[in-house]
C-alpha cells in the first residue's frame, strides 16, 4: 500500500529520503535549499554543516562507503554545486551511492540572469548514474526514489537532482513510491563455472579483492571461497581487512612475489587499472570478477569474467564440485616472502632517526590504533606509507580517495566516519599538501563536537612531485611548501588542539594524548623531506 505525502518540496524530498534509509544531511548553508533545512529542522533530522561544499559530499560518501547505504549532501545552486563536483567524481570512481540535491535558480526567470543561474546537468551527468532537474514539487518523491534506486543498483554510484526555486518552495501532494529491494544480478553460470575451474586447477593462484567486495557485502563469501579453494588473498581499498592479518591465507607484503609467480590471478571487485598494472600479469591467466557487466575491462582479455552479485559468484566458487589442486607449497613460498618483508618493515617502523622517518609514525600508530579504528588516508607521499605499514584488522575500517586520487577528502571522510561510528577511534592520515584542501573544516568538526585525530606528515614538499621532477629535469618547481608549518596551531585556532613532534621518541605520547583529547586534535610530525615513497601507491 502506497503512502500519500503532502508538504513543501523539502518535506516531500525528506519523506522519500527517510524511506530509503537516509539518516543525516551534510550541507553548506544556501538560500536555494532552505526548504530541505526546514524539513530536517522541524522533524529532528540530523543536519551537519561544513565550510566548503566538497566536504559535504565527501562526508556523504564516507557514510555511503562505511554503512553501505545512501549518503546525502545538499548544495546550493551554482558554485555550491560546482564546488561539490570533485566529490561527486570521486564517488563515481569509488562506486559510492551518494545523492546530491542541488538548488537551482527559478525556472520562470530562466535566462534572465538570476543569482547563481546555471544548468548543472551537463557538468554532473558524466560522473553520475542519474541526473535530473525536477520542475514540480509533486514530482519530487518520484525523482528521489528513481535517483536512489539508480545509485544503489550495481555498479553503484552517485546521483544528482536539482530543484528550481519555485519547485522546492511550493507545496505539493504525491504518492510516496514503494521502496523495492535491488534485485541481484545473476552471473552467467557457465562463466562462473569456468572461472571456478581455472582457480581450482591452478598451481599458483592469487586472489586480489577490492572495495566492491565490501560494498557488495561479500566479505564472508570471499573468505569461504578462499578457504575452500586454498587461495592466498591480497586486498586493496575497502577490501582491506576482509581476512584478518592473522588468517593463514591473508597476505599484504608479498604481492610482487605473488604476481610474478602466479599462474592464475583472480581480481574480485576492483578494476584492472593503474593500481594493478592495468591487468598485465605476464603469463598468468586473469579471472576478473565484477559486480556488473559494465565493469568488465575493455583493455584486457581475461580468461574468465563473471559479472553479477559478488556474494553469489564467490559462494559458487566455494562450492565448486570439481577437482582442486593442492596449493600448500605455493602458500608456504609466499609466507616466507611475507615474513621476510614484515621483518624489514619492523626495522623501518622502529627507526630512531632525526628527522623522523614516515615509517616510524606508522610504527607508533600501530601500537595505539584499536582493531575497529577507522583510518582515513588523504595525501600522496605520506599516505602511500600507510598502504605499506598499516594492516586493517577488520573490513570497513579503511577509507582513501580511491582511483580518482582526489586530495581534500580528509575532513569530510572524518565527519562521515564520526557520524557513522560515534564510539570508535577516527584517525586521518594527512600529507601537509593535502592539509591545504580541507583543514578549515576542522572548525566544522569542533563546533559540532565531532572529535577526530589528524596526523600530518609534514615534510614541507609535494613529495610525489618534487623528487620525480628533479630526477627528470635536474630541478623542480611548484613543489615546495613552507617547512615546519604549525598546522597544529591552525587547528587550535579553529577550536581543536594539537602539537608538533620533532623527535621520534615523542610520537607515542603525542598520539596517546590525541586519542584521549575529545576534540579534533592534530599531531604535526616533522618528517624527513628526503625520505619519499619510492614507488606508486596501491592504496585503493
What does it look like?
Helix content is 39%, strand content 16%. It is α/β, with parallel strands linked by helices and 540 residues long. The strands form 4 sheets. It has a 6-stranded parallel β-sheet with strand order 3-2-4-5-7-6, sandwiched between helices. It has a 6-stranded parallel β-sheet with strand order 14-13-15-16-18-17, sandwiched between helices. Helix 2 links the parallel strand 2 and strand 3. The longest helix has 22 residues. It is globular and about 70 Å long. The two termini are 43 Å apart. InterPro entries: DHS-like_NAD/FAD-binding_dom, THDP-binding, Thiamin_PyroP_enz_cen_dom, Thiamin_PyroP_enz_TPP-bd_dom, TPP_enz, TPP_enzyme_TPP-bd. This is Acetolactate synthase. Keywords: Thiamine pyrophosphate. Belongs to the TPP enzyme family.
What's this model, at a glance?
Its cofactor is thiamine diphosphate. The protein has 540 residues and is an alpha/beta fold.
The radius of gyration over CA amounts to 24 Å
Structural class: alpha/beta
Shape: globular
Strand neighbour order, sheet with most strands: 3-2-4-5-7-6
Largest sheet: 6 strands, parallel
Protein name: Acetolactate synthase
Organism: Micromonospora coerulea
Pfam families: TPP_enzyme_C, TPP_enzyme_M, TPP_enzyme_N
InterPro entries: DHS-like_NAD/FAD-binding_dom, THDP-binding, Thiamin_PyroP_enz_cen_dom, Thiamin_PyroP_enz_TPP-bd_dom, TPP_enz, TPP_enzyme_TPP-bd
